[in-house]
Give the backbone structure.
Amino acid sequence: MTAASAPAAGRSPTALSVRGLRKAFGPKLAVADVDLDIPHGCFFGLVGPNGAGKTTTLSMVTGLLRPDAGLVLVDGVEVWRDPVAAKRRIGVLPEDLRLFERLTGAELLTYNGLLRGMAPATVEERASELLGVLALDDAAGTLVIDYSHGMRKKIALAAALLHAPRVLFLDEPFEAIDPVSARTIRGLLERYTAGGATVVFSSHVMELVERLCDRVGIMHLGRLIAEGPVDQVRAGRSLEDAFVELVGAGDVTTEELGWLGISSA
Amino acid sequence: MAGHLIGLKLALLRNGLRRSHWQQQVGLVLGALAGLPLAAGGFLLLALVPRAEPRVGLLLVEAVFLLLFIGWGLFPLLSFSGEASLDPAMLALLPLRPRQLVSGLALAGCVGVAPLCTLVALTGAVAGFAPLFGPGLVLVAAAVLVEFALCLVGSRALLTALSRWLRSRRARDLTIVLMSVLALALNLAIQGGGRLLRRVGQDDLEALRPIARAVGWLPPGLAARAVVDAGSGRLLAATGELLAAAMVVLLLGWWWWRSLDRVLTTAEPPARARARAAAGLFPRVARRLLPTDQRGAVAAKELRYLARHPRLRVAWMMSGLLGLGLIVFVSLTEGLRHPWIVLASLAMAFLASQNSLNQFGFESLLTEKSSVHGHVDVRKRDASTWTRDFNVRQTRLRPRLLETEEEQKTQQT
């Protein structure tokens, strides 16, 4: 890993800066030499087919998975030199929602805030507000184990936002979320980025990325094969068409699965 | 920080009770209360026996310290999947340094029924060995605390080092099997151990001394020796043993810290399918025996599940072990004088294996979703169970028959 560290003199010019990020699991190269710069206040979408390396990349830039090589700076802090300082600046909604199942929603937020070193009064005030905005106030006293998948996503999002992080990383945030809640979350995130904070999220839903994001990165086989403003990447096409063209997805031919819809056994 | 982690542990314990039905709550409370008599028993054992019978003092305290150390290492491994507070990865998103976590989690680990019972039992050693005043009392109390720290830190270090593996499906399956085997082994140990203990006399006690000497060099043994030496006024030796045991606590703490550092920065990679050699639809051994229709498919699925489904694995292992255990138990206590014991063990194995004939409890959804008729399913499940029972009987009978033939030959000559 590169030992150099950018000094955080005042505010760093980028919210996230990645250089030569690499990770291999055994013989499989999951992330291969990714370079990326995301400016402050940006809504950045990371898209790619299953197994492209999105989750691995997000894990490495959030201090959860040590890379084999590369440099990651979040808001001027070198993540792998001081993961704790970096974790103070970021909020993470991971793909694998590992939550304390036997806490109520309100308790989960409270302990999250307290363990982050926040003042109890601030934690209480913010937790109550977040539960209200995310329509979880009725379920504040319900144990997380009894939440639906969508509710779990929302409470995990609230936990990620509680300490007002500078950069928010969300892995598939809209998966299993009902349309009403999705609209609420979109509004919340748009307001959040308007205040100068940065959102980086991965998704499979191209329409959503197209609608929400200023910039987009397309990953395939561990490499960032396209990155830039959304209009530039899609180049006059829909983002989905651009994505399919770049990734090279194969269509089902008429010869394949010919038996579908003909036989019942 | 430590205060918040203790609060978190208490909230998890409280909510665990809150969510359960009242029957489960009663069960949990009774389970917790059952620990207290055990703790009181441990206390009385350590407090009274060494005063009454000084010769067994060291043996007893070494045995109790070692058993507690092993218990603390083993039982959290078995309950890992069910208790979130044991999993350090739950705190990976928080800006906490491993050193903060080690101290906070160690203090939070002191909260609960198991730590309370352990401390109650260990306090018996203070009552049983320590003088009323002076440095001896301090050293005995310190040795008891070091033993507690060994249990707690050792257990947490082991859990953290294995936490990633313990979250895997393979580990959960293995846990189910291990718990069943342990329950059976514990039962046999209580049954057989009680009888053996009654036979143990003073001579046998002397025979145990070399084992006690060896155990005395293990970390819990060092703490136990410190207790006994401090109680007998050998303060220098006690101090040395205490320092050695405390050093092991520090080493375990260092291992815990290193493991935490690794766990917090090694998120699990995306699930990757383990390469498995392409298998035919039917298990190889049964390929020629089974018809290639719906009945064959059901029987093949059942045979595969015998090897793959943890509950079924437990069922056939238990049926075998129960039968074997009966023979071992009787041979230990009565000797193998009664040939009928073979029949009894077979009957026991057969009855135990019939538990897996709970056809409508196991995996009935698959049958309901497919168009296989119920009677086809039941018949083929029966077939696979009988095949298994037959195998169990064969493996059980063969050695016994050979043994009987040998006995007859010996008698003839």
